[in-house]
Predict the structure.
Amino acid sequence: MILLDTHVLIWAQWEPRKLSRVAEATLRRAKASSSIAISAITVVELASLMNHGRIRTKGTIEGTIRQLIEGVEVLPLHLEAAMATSYFSLDTLPDPMDRIIAATARAEGIPLVTADERMQKCPLVKTIW
């Protein structure tokens, strides 16, 4: 199983040319075995980005989110992941949603697919790009 960062979920659906070759191959393999997940906070982030007009919707916000997450497992924010956010300093990952996504990958023991250089440099989470 792999965990997708929010932008990777969007790019995989709407702008696949933005994906690295490694990310694209990883997604293809994970999709074949239904092993793609996102953090529940990604849904919150998507709604926020759509509400602020940073991501265009295709119909309603809810409908657009449902389309984006079709076939993707949404992992809830468990206590372990919530507590693991304390491992990530504000200097390393200043965005609270990024800390929750990274902590979810760490708590679940799965790699995070992300183009975010801050996350890639973080030794606490395995990343793929």
In short: The CA atoms of residues 57 and 103 lie 28 Å apart. Strands lie at 2-4, 36-39, 73-75, 112-113, 127-128.
